[in-house]
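Design request, tokens follow.
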């Protein structure tokens, strides 16, 4: 049996026909594809012992405690650690068939590490680590000489792209707005590592509209909003929190927006980029946003350089933009489909188990 430690996703009759939040999508398609390979148990990354069978496979996210800081002060730390708790013998750190699936960068933001109480011990105990990320982070991990947990486990690291069920994005861009009327979209939690400060500085004074969707401004009404960076104030059109399964939002996005902009400092592989590529928006992204494509337009962390790059993009012929639009969607279908991603996971696990068996025999 394969035990999948994620968020305890509950598969429903029409789950495969709708698009949900990225973490739910990961669990949904894990069950769909991996259950074709083995008996499958969907469980939670805060679970403890689930098996004593030495032939079972344990695959999941590092234990995530979203209320870690607040709850620990009042009630203490989490008792259960699924990696440690499923060890088959005293003194061993884990079940022998333990595998981690997690977003991967070379320097994890504090907002991540603060909520992963067993981060280092779980990574050290795993047989393999499947890093959901752009190739940039695998390359930088192997090139780094720093003594970090990432470099200490780099020999166990296996690259996996983030996946997307493109078939559930049927509203696709068919044309671009005229020069002078082209618009940008950004969707994120606006955390520091997302680089939204660079986005604001990069588009300032350009003849375009920046639309921003986020769930972290609950007291802000949709419409013109401002964002303070140092001594400067920048303005954007706030569209609230969006639902990617909402047909009205999909239609609005492909009609009004031409580019998706993401200037992250350290994003594993932003799902919002893939979602926008599936709609046919042209990505304006930094390499550190995690998306690798010859059809993307790459930005830097220098707003002045970005200003010129974006200005040029806003003036591109529609034919070139349409070519990029079709190409990024085709790339996401080809390289970010869950079937191939979970085939990589399964085949790597099987090869690892067989390799360890051969060494024992």
């Amino acid at each position: 049996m394969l035990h999948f430690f994620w968020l305890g996703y509950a598969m429903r009759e029409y789950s495969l026909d709708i698009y949900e939040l990225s973490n739910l999508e990961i669990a949904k398609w894990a069950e769909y594809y991996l259950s074709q390979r083995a008996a499958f148990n969907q469980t939670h990354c805060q679970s403890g012992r689930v098996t004593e069978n030495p032939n079972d496979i344990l695959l999941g996210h590092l234990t995530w405690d979203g209320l870690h800081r607040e709850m620990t002060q009042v009630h203490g730390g989490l008792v259960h650690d699924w990696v440690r708790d499923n060890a088959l013998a005293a003194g061993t750190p884990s079940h022998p068939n333990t595998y981690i699936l997690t977003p991967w960068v070379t320097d994890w933001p504090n907002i991540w590490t603060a909520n992963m109480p067993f981060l280092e011990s779980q990574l050290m105990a795993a047989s393999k680590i499947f890093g959901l990320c752009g190739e940039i982070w695998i390359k930088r991990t192997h090139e780094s000489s720093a003594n970090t947990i990432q470099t200490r486990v780099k020999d166990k690291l296996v690259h996996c792209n983030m996946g997307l069920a493109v078939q559930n994005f049927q509203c696709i861009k068919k044309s671009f707005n005229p020069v002078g009327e082209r618009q940008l979209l950004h969707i994120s939690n606006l955390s520091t590592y997302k680089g939204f400060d660079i986005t604001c500085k990069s588009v300032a004074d350009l003849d375009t509209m920046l639309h921003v969707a986020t769930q972290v401004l609950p007291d802000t009404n949709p419409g013109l909003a401002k964002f303070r960076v140092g001594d400067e104030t920048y303005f954007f059109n706030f569209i609230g929190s969006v639902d990617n399964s909402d047909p009205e939002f999909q239609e609005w996005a492909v009609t009004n927006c031409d580019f998706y902009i993401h200037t992250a400092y350290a994003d594993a592989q932003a799902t919002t980029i893939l979602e926008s590529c599936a709609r046919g928006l042209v990505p304006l992204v930094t390499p550190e946003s995690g998306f690798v494509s010859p059809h993307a337009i790459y930005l830097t962390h220098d707003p002045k350089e970005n200003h010129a790059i974006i200005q040029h993009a806003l003036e591109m012929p529609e034919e070139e933009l349409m070519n990029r639009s079709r190409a990024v969607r085709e790339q996401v279908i080809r390289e970010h489909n869950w079937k191939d991603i979970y085939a990589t996971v399964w085949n790597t696990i099987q090869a690892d188990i067989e390799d360890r068996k051969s060494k024992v025999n």
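Comment from the thread starter after seeing the answer: thanks! The chain has two domains: 2-163+337-360, 170-334.
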